[in-house]
Structures are given as C-alpha cells and as structure tokens.
Amino acid sequence: MTVFKNYFKIMKQYRTTIIIYTVIFVALAVFATNSGVKTNDFTAIKPNVAIINNDNETVLVEGFNDYLKENAIIKSVKNNEESLRDSLFFRVVDYILIIPENFTEDFITLKNPKIETMNIPDSYGAIYTEILLDRFLNIAKVYAASGMDQEEIIENIKIDLKQQGEVFYSEKTSMTNVGYINYYYNFSNYTFLAISVYIIGMIMNAFNDTKIKRRNLVSNFSYKKINRQLFAGNFCLMLLIWSIYVGISIILYPKAMFTNYGLLLIINSLVFSVTVLSIGFLIGNLVKNREATDGIVNVIALGSSFICGAFVPQEFLGNFVLSIAKFLPSYWYIKTNNDIVELTNFSLDKLGPIFTNMIIVLAFGVLFFIITNIVTKLKLKKS
Amino acid sequence: MFRHIFINRLKILLRSKSAIFWTLVFPLVLATLFNLAFSNLTSSEQFQKIDLAVVNNESFQNEKNFKDLIETLSVTGDDQLFNTKYVDENKAKSLLEEGKISGYIIVKDKIGVVVKSNGVGPSTIKNVVDNYYQVVSVINNISDYNPEAIKKGVLNKLNENTSNFNDISNKNIDASVVYFYTLIGMVCLYGGAFGVNAVVETEANLSKKGARVSVSPIHKFKLLIASLLAGFVIQYSEVLILLIYLVFILNINFGSQIIPVILLTFVGSFAGISLGTLIGVSNKKSENMKMSILISSTMLCCFLAGMMVLNMKYIIADKMPILAKINPVNMITDGLYSLYYYETFDRYIYNIISLLIFSLVMIIISYHFIRRKKYDSI
After folding, report:
1. Mean pLDDT, chain B, integer
2. Do the Cβ atoms of A341 and A253 come closer than 8 Å?
3. How far apart (Å, rounded) are the C-alpha atoms in residues B280 and B185?
4. pLDDT value, residue B280
C-alpha cells in the first residue's frame, strides 16, 4: 500500500488547486444548467411575446392583450428598438408586436391596419404565434364587418374562444424538473473530464518524474502493482469528485433526484466516472509536461462535450457529427442519460438497453486501462 | 537595436509551443467544434410540418366540414401544416407511442385530440380543432346579431389571405454566430500571453533574463515596446488566420463588410496585449501563475459574453449592464454582433471606443508599475 498512501500525501500538497478547480467547474455546471435548459426548449407551448402598443388603451387592444396573456407569455422588454431587436436575436422573445397608432379606429372601420412584427423567420415560434394571432384578428375582423362595436366584438370573441376540442394525454407526462437534472448530468461529461484529467494528470506527474520513476522501478514492486495502486488512489479521488457532483444535484433538485430517474442518473454517472478515471490515468501516464496536459484536457473535455451533446442536445446535432461521436464513451453516457429521462416505466425490457449502454461505457474504461498498462510496459522496455 | 530585439523576440515567441497552442491551435479546434455542434442548431428552429394521424371512423366521415379543413391543411405546398395519415385507432395509438406523430385526432361525440406531451406539434393540432369549433360559434353569433351580414359574405374574411401583419424582421438572425464572435474575443485576449511574456523577460525583478537585459545600455521602454510589438504582430496574424478560417472554411457570416471586422480585431488584439502587460507587471508571481490569471480571467469574460451559454450575453447586458460594458470580450463580441445584425455603425463605434479606453487604462496603470524602477541588487 506504499504507493497508495503516497498518492494521498501528494494529493494533500495540491489541496488548494484541487478545491479551487472543483468549485469552479461544479459552479459552472450549476450555472449552465439553470440558464441553459430554457435555451434549448423549443417546444414550449406558450411562445414568448413582447407587445408595444402605440395605440390608446382601447377595449379592443385590451381584449387582444388579455387573449395573448392566456395563450402566450408576455415578456416586458424596454421599448427601444435596440433592446427589442436584441431580445429577439437572443431568443428571449419569439415574436414582437408593434401595434400602430389609431389601430382600433382603423380596424373597426375596416381599413385593415397592419401590426408590425419582428420574428425569427420560419421558426416554430413565429409560425405558431402567427396562427394564434390570426385566429383572434380574423374573428374580430368578421365581427367588425358585420357591424359590431369594440365591446361587442370582445364579448363575442370571449364566447367563441371557450369552444374547444377535447385533449387526452396518452400517458402521464414526466415531471418538469427532469429536464434540469438531465442537463446537469449531461454537463457532467465536461465537468468530470476537465476536473479529473487535470488533477490526475497533476498528481501522476509527480510519480512520472524521471528520477522518482527510476527509483520506483528498482523497488520490488512490479509496474502492474504500482499501476494498480495508483489507479486505486485515483479511484478514491474520482469518487470524491463524483459524490460532490451528485450531492449538489440532490441539494439543488431534490424533487427530481429522489425518483427512479434520479437514481438511474446517479448510477450512470458513477459508471461514467470510472471510465473518465481511466482516461485521466492514461493521459497522466502518456503526457509528461504539465503545459501539454492543460491543452489536452481542454481539447478532450470541450471536444467530447460539443460533439457528444453535453452542451447542445444530441437531437440538434447533425448525423455526421453523431456518427463520429459514437466512437467516444461520452456519446454513450449522454445518450443513456437522455434515454433514462425518456422512460415511461421501469420494466425490465425498458431498462435493458440502458444497462447495455452502461456496459459499453464501462468497456471503454477497461479498454483505456489496458492501453495504459501496455503503454507503461512499452515505455519500460524503451528505458 | 530595436530591429534586432524585435526580430529575435519574434523567433523566440514562434518557438514557444504552448503559447502558439493556446493562441492559435486551440481556437481553431474550438471553432471546428462549434461548427460541428451548432451547424444544425438553426435548422432545428425551422418549422417542420407536423405529423398527424386521424382516426378514419364513421364519425369523422360524417363531420364533413372538419374533414375538409384537415384535408386543406394537409395539401402539399407552402401553406401545408400537417402531414396527415388516415388510420384506425390502434394504428394511431402505436404511431403515437413510437413518436412517429405529434398526436392524433379522434372524432366521437366531440372532436378529441390525443397527445403524449406538450409541445408545438400537439398545441398546433389542438388549436386547429379549437378553431373549428370557434368558427362554428362565430357563425352562430353573427346569425343572431346580423343575419344580413352572412349573406353579404363577411365569413369569407375568416379565410382571407390579406395578412394582418407587416413583417419588419431582420433576416440575419442566426444566433450561433455569437459563439464564433466570442471565440475571436477569446483569441484577442489570449494574445495577452505575449504581453505577459514580454514583461517577464524584460523586467529585472521577474526573471534572470530580465535582469540580464536590464543591465544592457538600452532604454527600458525601447526594449519593452520592441518585445510587445513582436507579440502583437504574432497575435494579430493569428487572429487573421482564425478569421480566414472562419470566413472561408467554415462560412461564418460576419455581415456584409469585412474592413470593420479587421479593424475591430486589430483594436481587440491591442486590448489583449495591454491586459497581458498589466497582468505581467502588476505582481511578482511566476510566469505560469500569470498565465493562469490571464487564461482564467479570459474564460470568465468569455462566459459572460455568451461563449458557453448564449443567453448569458443578453442576461448580463439586461440585468448588469456595467459588467457588460467593462468586459473586453463582450466589447469585441458585441461589435461583431452589431456589424452582423444592425445596419447602422453607432454601436460598433461605441464598442471600438470602449476597447480603446480599456487598453488605455491598462497601459496607464502598467506604466505606473514599470516607470522609475532601479535596483542596486536583486
């Protein structure tokens, strides 16, 4: 156990760096989850709309406003052109309406006034909002043409809009919070890789210093034994990082985490952390130079996160990208996360594919560990 | 002498592998990754026809007007809303289960919509059904109120094609370009690495090399400026390489004019070098530590400018405008964004001036650290 104990001595030396690094990346994950989930939610049933009214507060405009409040989320945006256009560009709103002066009067007198709009051309938000708006305006137009005044129009429209078809849900929809934990655990691909490869690389460097290495090699420990103990040390470290990450998810999203979804996500992330560990171990053994480790960490963590769907959901990635991603464990890990939250029941035949994916992830881990041993052996022969 | 220092500094910097990696290779890799990840993002926003199934039972056949409505909405063309399949109930159920359709319509006593979850597809289907009932209600209301009007054909207005809107939206609205703009901001600031390096190797109290050159009979500022200039030349060339890669290989849209982009990145690189200089002179930490400060502060700026989460740029500008105004990465990103999205140059010029002020502040503070330092012994 000499090596194993020594591992923790070195780890103590790097205490501050490890803590700072962990805090930064976990904070990043939390921050990204809380602001990132909505960004990718193109399926919201209520579009975000901003209205600028240049007409007076007439009954018609009020009625129109009430209708929108019911069917859309009204966002208040500063009434200047730049703020408006910025909010549209960054998808804070899907649709901007500018009601012109004298709109009500022109509308009642059938002059067909036009509402100025800004939207994201041909997007779901734009087309869906337009359907909603057209419904109100077209009905109002018919009423105006048949001679009603404002009050009568609004009154009648209210009656009309109560007429609705029936909606049935084929199955219970999953809780809203699941989206958050899904994103948070997908993001862990970045967090785990960045933290562990960096820290493991740092500690392994201490062991890989040429003089220390030579000293270790003349001892009666075989390289396999040393590797195993180092791996065990790294495993404890990884377990610590993993439990912090999981702990925070439980604190932040307790409702969603104390479910079968949460449990499966935790198991999946544990499996993945073992694979991450062996990736870190391999890199720590391959790369001697600290600066080079920095570069490799970033390329691996960011690269796999981007192309495997940790940042941008897999469904939005192109087929070409995904077919490359399939060669990486991150893809299978994130795919499993997504499959887990899609589950509608927890029967064995539904869970089967999920556990198969976990085995694939683990197989990558074993592969990397074997490669590490081969690499160390080759290096031994060389020296 | 100036030329001698300049050329030798160029050689030294070009040979420093890690600096070149961070300021050139890494951004190119990131740009490629962004491109892979975001290439489908805009098209995923695009409206796709909604897959719908209708249970083709007797009640549906009897509800003639509704049947016509669905058929009209399913005619292939620009106005097509639905891809409709007419099936029996079991088939509809299994299609929904497999996720092949957004929902299905079943007519019993009333028209019902069966869906799996909420979303644009299900909501649109429901809207169409609702609308059908509402039109019926409209007809009833009008025939109560003014039966004459129906004869005059007011109902045609319901399906009239005259638009209620005047669309004034901008066509340049691909939000993913901002990721690439923040990337340029990042490279500009990473160039600060050359500033850090120049300072460390000329300041006597920071490195042995610095001590050595300080005893040479050259004015210190001449030395420093030659080093900084060499760093700037390398950095700006790297920014241009990245720009060429973005424009010609990845086809990123930078708006219609390229000259303002080149100018902005020039000023941005300058801001980066001056930030690096300040980080270099302001403390006595090791060069590695200084690099970490530079890289982590740059990353923080990038994050706040929207590199990881796009909305962040808007949220910061909206909620904490001061933070957006002092963030150099945001100045560069915002400048490029305004070139892409706005027709006028006001905002662009504002950002250029902000960057110049930022650089000036950095240089003035740095100058106060450097000037009049003499050592009897170190």
Report:
1. 87
2. no
3. 20
4. 92
Identify the domain containing residue B117 by its residue range: 51-159
Nearest-CA distance A254 → chain B (Å): 23
Between residues 136 and 175 of chain B, which touch chain A (CB distance below 8 Å)? Answer: 136-138, 141-142, 145-146, 149-150, 154-155, 157-160, 162-171, 173, 175
Strands A48-53 and A73-74, by their bridges, are: parallel
Between A48 and A78, residue with greater pLDDT:
A48
Residues in chain A: 383
Interface of B with A in 324-343 (CB under 8 A): 337, 341-342
Q: Verify that B100 and B216 share a domain, yes or no.
A: no
β-strands A95-99, A115-119 pairing: antiparallel
- Residue ranges covered by each domain of chain A: 2-40+176-382, 48-161
Contact A250, A177 (CB under 8 A): no
- Worst-scoring range by mean pLDDT, A171-185, A266-280, B27-41, B309-323? A171-185
The dihedrals phi and psi of B34, each to the nearest 5 degrees, come to -55, -45
User: Rounded distance, CA A178 to CA A245, Å?
Assistant: 17
User: Hey, how many other C-beta atoms are within 10 angstroms of the C-beta on A339?
Assistant: 16
pTM: 0.82
Q: Residue B50: what are its φ and ψ, rounded to 5°?
A: -90, 130
Q: Which of B199, B200, B193, B366 is nearest to B292 (CA)?
A: B193
| Structure-token pair, residue B300 | 């923080």
Spatial neighbors of A73 by CB under 8 A, at least 6 apart, are: A46, A47, A48, A49
pLDDT tens digits for range B79-138: 788 888 898 888 888 888 777 888 888 888 888 888 877 777 888 888 888 888 888 888
Q: What's the CATH number where B112 sits? A: 3.40.190
Q: Where a domain ends, among B159, B187, B204? A: B159
Q: For chain B, how many structural domains are there in total?
A: 2
Question: Chain A contact for B302, CB < 8 A?
Answer: no
**pLDDT tens-place string over residues B220-245:** 888 889 999 999 999 999 999 999 99
If asked whether residues B326 and B285 sit together in one domain, one would say yes
Whose CA is closest to B146, among A148, A207, A62? A148
**CATH code, A48-161:** 3.40.1710.10
Asked if residues A190 and A311 have their Cβ atoms less than 8 Å apart, the reply is yes
Q: Give pLDDT, residue B378.
A: 67
Give me the pLDDT at residue A43, please.
Answer: 44
Q: Which one has a higher pLDDT value, B4 or B48?
A: B4
Residues B284 and B356 in one domain: yes
Asked if A142's CB is within 8 angstroms of B134's CB, the reply is no
**Which residues face B46 on adjacent strands?**
A123
**Mean pLDDT score of chain A:** 85
Whether residue B134 sits in one domain with residue B242? no
